Amino acid sequence: MSRTVLITGGTSGIGRAIAEAFIADQAEVFITGRHPDTVERTAKEMGAHGVVCDAGSPERVAALADRLGELDVLVNAAGGLPEAASDDLAPLDGLLAQWHSSLSQNLLTAVLTTASVQEKLTGGGSVISIGSIGAERRGGSYGAAKAALAAWNASTSAELAPKGVTCNVISAGFIAGTNFFQGRMTDDRRGALVAETHNKRAGTVEDIAQTAFFLASPGARHITGQTIHVNGGAFTTR
């Protein structure tokens, strides 16, 4: 029986790879993004349903939920580094804007989307949120938001468990082939991140996609409220 899957931030990088994994399993997949052209193009390329939605907007996520029937899997993949604050702002105002941006993109997108669709989640369903190694090491406002995501996930797991819904976070280490670093990754930095791993390679979007696919599988029904680290053995406490 085909599953219905919703993936926020599903137009590129990790979100797109997760969408492709579920599509390969014949799931009906909905992907969201903020830019109409990108959403339309990506959905057409993959054979998914594309919905333009800012997952940080209560009005937009409510409208998104209204379009959906029963939902088997929700993947909260929307997120990213904070938007640069305007140079016109006073230092503390700029700092506040940075933190608001991090929390909105990396925590509130998951909170709002999950709340909007939780009544549609089927028994045996799954909520999977994409976290980061930055939650435990020098992550600044971005890492703090991802740490809050893990705390929120634990409480949401307890709330949804009576319905038979599991909730887990995938804490990703360095993943190559995404636009996360916005072109600012240097060769030295990349080399240092790879050197920290035990297997001496960067992670791939497929590594995260296959972990997400497993967490939504029958074999993972007793895994909930957890943060699953996928970082090649990189130390998470430095």
UniProtKB/TrEMBL annotation:
Q: Does Oxidoreductase count among this protein's keywords?
A: yes
Annotated keywords: Oxidoreductase
Instruction: Tell me one Pfam family matched here.
Output: adh_short_C2
- Please give the InterPro entries that the UniProt record associates with this protein: NAD(P)-bd_dom_sf (IPR036291), Sc_DH/Rdtase_CS (IPR020904), SDR_DHRS6-like (IPR051122), SDR_fam (IPR002347)
Query: So which domain of life are we looking at?
Result: Bacteria
Q: Which family does it belong to?
A: Belongs to the short-chain dehydrogenases/reductases (SDR) family.
UniProt-listed PANTHER family? DIHYDROANTICAPSIN 7-DEHYDROGENASE
The identity of this protein, by name, is SDR family oxidoreductase
From which organism does this entry originate?
Streptomyces asiaticus subsp. ignotus
